[in-house]
Sequence to fold (1202 residues):
Amino acid sequence: MSSIANKKGFGATVWDYMTTVDHKKIGVMYLIAGTFFFVLGGIEAMLMRIQLMKPNNDFVSAGFFNELMTMHGTTMIFLAAMPLLFAFMNAVVPLQIGARDVAFPFLNSLGFWLFFFGGIFLNLSWFLGGAPDAGWTSYASLSLYSEGHGIDFYVLGLQVSGAGTLISGINFLVTIVNMRAPGMTYMRMPLFTWTTFVSSALIVFAFPPLTIGLALMLFDRMFGANFFDHTMGGNTIIWEHLFWIFGHPEVYILVLPAFGLFSEIFATFSRKRLFGYSSMVFATILIGFLGFMVWAHHMFTVGLGATANAIFAVATMLIAVPTGMKVFNWLLTMWGGSIKVTVPMLYALGFIPSFVAGGVTGVMQAAAPLDYQLHDSYFIVAHFHYVIVGGIVLALFGSAHYYWPLMFNQMLSEKLGKVTFWLFFIGFHCTFFVQHFLGLMGMPRRVSTYDAGQGLDLFNMISTVGAVLMAIGVITLVVNVVITAVKNEKVGRDPWGDGRTLEWAIPQPVPFYNFRQTPLVRGLDTYWIEKQEGNEEGMTYAEPLSDIHMPNNSILPFMMTVGLFIASFGALYNMDADKPWSIYLLVGGLGMLFVCMFIRSFKDDHGYHVHVEEILAEEERLYGKKGGND
Amino acid sequence: MDMNKQFTAQTWPDHPEQATLEGKNKFVGFWIFLACEVVLFASLFATYLALKNRGPASMGEEFTTQNLFELPLVFVMTMVLLTSSLTSVYAMYHMKNHNFKGTQTWMGITVILGAVFLALEIYEFNHYVHLGFHYSQSAFSSAFYTLVGTHGAHVLLGLCWISSLIIRNSKRGLNLYNAPKYYVAALYWHFIDVVWVFIFTVVYLMGAM
Amino acid sequence: MMRKFKKWRLVALLATMTVFLTACGEEYLSTLTPAGKVGQEQFNLLLLATAIMALVIIVVCIIYFISFIKFRRSVIGEDVIPKQVEGSHTLEVIWTVIPIILLLILAVPTVMATYELGDTSGMDAVDENGDKRALTVNVTAKLYWWEFEYPDLGIVTSQELVVPTNENVYFNLIAADVKHSFWIPAVGGKMDTNVENLNKFYLEFSEESARLKDGVFYGKCAELCGPSHALMDFKVKTLKREDFNAWVTAMQNTQNRTVAADVQAGEEAFVANGCIACHATDAIATTPDDAYASNALGPNLATFGDRNRVAGVLDHTEEEVVNWLQNSETLKPGNLMPMYDDVPKEELEAIAAYLMSLSVEQE
Fold:
């Protein structure tokens, strides 16, 4: 019944993960799946950089290059960056707010499986007639023109994984609204929880336009609708608007949690309260709000007219203000602190100059007339990689080191971690810094090759060398993970020594019910407060030890997703006249989905209770004594 | 707390839908879900307005909003759906008073009215298709059927949902486990109704003008 | 004294410029060597934005390094518990207000330039005779080539745009199949060619292209449009106004040109193989002047001999023409021209020689 981890066979472990509704295990699954897709996207990037290493190269064909470029973008955004952030949200947020699980554990599991199978579906296109090739933006005229099923894989795969993201977004919002421990007021929430909160709200408002855009494209390709066919009165600019109304907030969906993670790291390793906490919260909300007002800056050259361009230019520049506030608050957190240069802090220190560079080039592109030159050139490629790699990926790597002890009760090697950082960091700047100049020198983005004698050769070569360094960096990280897992040295609670927030107060390994008693939160950085007051227990409790209510595991989310996965294949091949069997897949898959939904509705699921004596037995097993704190 | 605990009208809480943590989560979560739905429909409305009356160069005046829509029929549909929203309010009223039979009856009437609405919509679509205004006829036809059809699909889903609730709970009466379920179903039904008011205004009334 | 200082400043400036220029790219392609009013304005905006942003980076880096140097744990001691500061309102105000001021400095010229560059009213201005004052070019982007029609002059060309210098040239832009984007980096920013609507903008060309390496500016397609997106280049030839007028007259006289005797066989092969069905060999515009995309199936070849490249990317030689005719699909994947690899090589060579003779510039 309970997920007490006795020694289990491999099959039982797999079954446990397939059915789990425990946010910690779902976090681990997000981490593994996200890393898998990250590596996949990285391989695609390497192939592209090898192709562009020298002029007129024929390492890959032009058509294949477009598939690589499309899948690299799509994979990295939807299947790597978002799930990896979800990994940390799942692993950390419930612990930070003193909750025993998320608000909807069943939906949490469903969200994961939808993302995972959506991603698998999308990537199966490589083996089933070719990947999508119209760019991750998949602009309508080209994507309708594109032959084969590549675009259909894109549409259906993103629809499925997008549904998973939406579910997770709603889940985190409700979790943070309803499940905070007593005393955890909004203005005492750690900044990672805050950014998760705002980013989830952005998901709620940004993903539906994408859902609609994808649906319209699906209808155009599948049912002969005419949304984007201008000969029938359609309009491709509608796709561009819908995509960017989603696409721009998506950037903030990704980067806000990254800000949150860095805020935790800066405070911890400066041994100092986050400077200007309330203005950080305010800036987060403001960025989220403004993020919806600026989508048309991706469309300055579409011909929206001078007035629209001017308005969106100024609105875009405004975002620099709250972002700047954040940067200065981080700097002032370090100022007067006690900075310990651990690997997570190294990533945070690398983040500041990298992200500021990415931010300022963003402001440059906000100047619409200047953007007429920069748009769709390599300058923009450099810009968004500075933001996404310099902001988000550094956050993910840094947090992987930072939260590894929390998730696995082990510490990644600091020595190897530093090697990873320097390889990756130098490689990153080497790859992307010169790309600014390539763009200014007239190299359009998304080109599969370029002619010699245009002055572009040297910088492309440098860029490829940098990419190799980044790849070696990532491999070092993987090696580090493997070595750490094999060594399996347990590190216990608060291994950094400077943990400030509630998640570090829990004894390691974290019991499946998280908190034996619900904690009472007495201020911002509650664990820091307890430590300063010499509380060995690390927490003040809000209730006596009593039975704990926990949700049941369920295989239904997995089965529902498999149903949808099968149905997606049915829908995809239903477009071909010569595949009459596809309708059975479609109906069968949807049938499976509905049967699972029916079971879920008609079979009551009240969860179960962990009784006091079971809690004590579990603590005995985990820590060998009551209470468990080292 | 035992989820299957039996209540009487006296012990029944004032806000049964939010009396448990699960209920509270459902309540907040569903409101957020409706926010998603608002954006979803907003995107569809925007698309519809952009493509209103747009078609191939050869498209005549026959299939424009002015000449196509049959307002009397749509008016009847609107009234039916508005009434069904009212009956679901009655059902919620009875639920708050722990009158399970009343809840079930009024929810049942809501379902019947919803089914009537759906039947009329199917008739309407069928009628247009027979006139030659089919899904692929123009960008306008695609946008029209997609917007109104998405609403119709929501009605259908709502009907299935409420019917299952009625059937599933017919034997066991109200408790704190199923009260939130009834509540969010009614909330969903109101939302569908509000969307229809917008469709009626934006598509039909503004179209006929 | 002052003089000496000025001289030093000049040397320093030159030194910086040399370093800078190595990263400037080629002047026929780079946005950093603007050859026109529009490009210059955008370049000035780039300099302004870069200056402001460099200031921001410097300030951030100074605070960053000082705090890193002064407040490391190895410097201040292992057991120090820093003061847990909440924040500072004064500082918050400072780093809100100063960025806003910096952004205003950038926003004002941005908005002004946006309106200035968006103003295409000059396109319709007419003189006392009712003739258009400014030159207008209708650009149609097609799967991997460009057509340039001069509606007021009744001529059409493709792949190589020819324009006069030192005056505003207005463009009507549209795509015939999928979306493309029209970009001449050295002259000015880009504008998309949408499939459903006409976009308008203008450029100004301040330099004659004859002195450039290939005698032309490079143009690019900037919007992903399929496998051969990277190969959808075009070239721009800029001429003094009187040279341009001469070119126009020559173009207008391309109807019923007689070809030289030595390439007549090529002309016959051109017709016999059906090339003529898609490719016009005179420069007379046939499509009416309307808002829609030109319906030409293949590029106009009336000035083939004057061009700089074959098919936009290959060297301009007869061998490459033959190569193109035999391998068009592999050379430019996804393009719509059939391959003529079953036609005897001599015939293709004859066609190549014929095409090379089509010229309005050679005497």
